[in-house]
Amino acid sequence: MLFPTIDFAIFFAVAFTANWLLNPFPRTWKLAMVALSYVFYSWWDWRFVFLLAAVTITAQVGATAVQRFEDERHRRVAMVSTVAALLGLLGWFKYYGFVAVNVDNFFHTLGSGRLLPLLEVTLPVGISFFTFMALSYVIDVYRRKLQPAHFLDVAVYLSFFPHLIAGPIVRGEELLPQIRRKRDPAAIDFGRAAWLVAGGLFKKVVISSYVDSAIVTPVFSAPHQHSALEILFGIYGFAVQIYADFSGYTDIAIGLAMFLGFRFPDNFDAPYTARNLQDFWRRWHMTLSRWLRDYLYIPLGGGRGSRLTVARNIMITMVLGGLWHGAAWTFVVWGAIHGSGQVVGHLRRSNRAAAGLDPVPDGGVRVWVQRIVTFHIVCLGWVFFRADSFSTATTLIGRLFSAWGRAPLVTPLVVITVVGAVALQYLPKALGGRAQREFAGQPWVVQGAILGVVLLVITTLGPQGVAPFIYYKF
Predict the structure, then answer these.
(1) pLDDT tens-digit profile of 296-343?
(2) What does each C-alpha distance from 307 to 154, 282, 295, 317, 321 come to in angstroms?
(3) What is the rounded CA–CA span in Å between residue 449 and residue 451?
(4) Which of 224, 325, 338, 376 is catalytic?
(5) What is the pLDDT of residue 386?
(6) Around 470, how many Cα atoms within 13 Å sit in the side-chain half-sphere?
(7) How many CB atoms are located within 10 Å of the residue 265 CB?
(8) CB-based contacts of 473: which residues, under 8 Å, 6+ apart?
(9) 338 belongs to the catalytic site
(10) Quick one: which of 470, 329, 335, 341 has its CA closest to 391?
(11) pLDDT tens sequence across 218-266
(12) What is the 3-state secondary structure (H, E, C) of 101-146?
């Protein structure tokens, strides 16, 4: 069930009504939310609701076992076993085909026959997101940051439909307390929620869809047919598309949760204004960045140890983060590009500190050079992220420097959309906040009229039908 559809509008009207009618009755409300969320998830394939239920049961049984044991060794065994079971489910559905193909190719080069059967395993939508939330819940119980919640609370936590398909990755400590308490409808900022939903729809339906059809898909589908300038704007266009698509989803998810009385963490903060790759990951998919930091990078040793040890930890974290996005070597390369860039930055800072030198002073020109260089490294990574193969990626990069010629796809509207979408991230945050507050402060009749106009514009400018959000497949 896609957010920008009539089906979802009807579904959410039912969910919104049930949410507030049942708010005084906590147990009934939780049962209703689980049921509605399972209906939402079953819209793609009803069989995968059993997977969601299995992840929920595994996480709760594991967390309860961790809590029950007093001995640290037994607690650790329970935690590791549960994490292994959850990762096993994720690995089977997401990585079996990738592993089977690569293992068979390796043994084929040695003259052996097929070792693993090639099975077509359907990837359940959003499996990475709810699995990572389940992992954080179990690990936080092990770390004594959380007490095991009631099973029904955990079921709501993992299945809650606004975040279920593509995040944000919400921690147990952030969402479980909100599930336990009654919500006050008078405390809901309906104006801000509506603003977020409308803005997210505009990003997805208008901006993301337009740049995809106008230049991204044509360029990435047939790179041999396009000139260097078209390829350049195709790459820039994908940077805009994936940002508009994913941040648009996040805005909608946060807004829908607000309508229901919940607050989700922010997931984006003007990522294309970043001055280095470390800064980029503080601004892009922030809930995943924090997850990788807290549950992978720090357990590996984090910033402790020698410079080479820290560099190793960064590379492992980013390469596995790349593989999290998809079972393909192109995603591994994407993660390695981001890891290598962060390692270079880390070594430069460490070398200056070891030599007793002060940090390089900031300046206006230096800041803009850093931003431009960082943006283009990110765009290089996006080539591998979007390309369907290494061949496509290398062809695109090669033709950037050789395929001079006409560029009919680079129309004034494409240039304005791409440049404008990046430039908007440089507007002061206070300006956007002020616009939100102005909208929220209007009478509900005025708000409704504005939203009506916005929806009319979205419907008029948007395509027939809406493609799934890009991050649904992760």
Answers:
(1) 999 999 989 888 999 999 999 999 999 999 889 999 999 999 999 999
(2) 40, 21, 21, 15, 21
(3) 5
(4) 325
(5) 96
(6) 22
(7) 16
(8) 123, 125, 326
(9) no
(10) 329
(11) 999 999 999 999 999 999 999 999 999 999 999 999 999 999 999 999 9
(12) HHHHHHHHHCCCCCCCCCCCCCCCCCHHHHHHHHHHHHHHHHCCCC
pTM of the model: 0.92
Side-chain-side CA neighbours of residue 189 (13 Å): 15
Tracing tokens 């006409």 back to the chain, one arrives at: 406
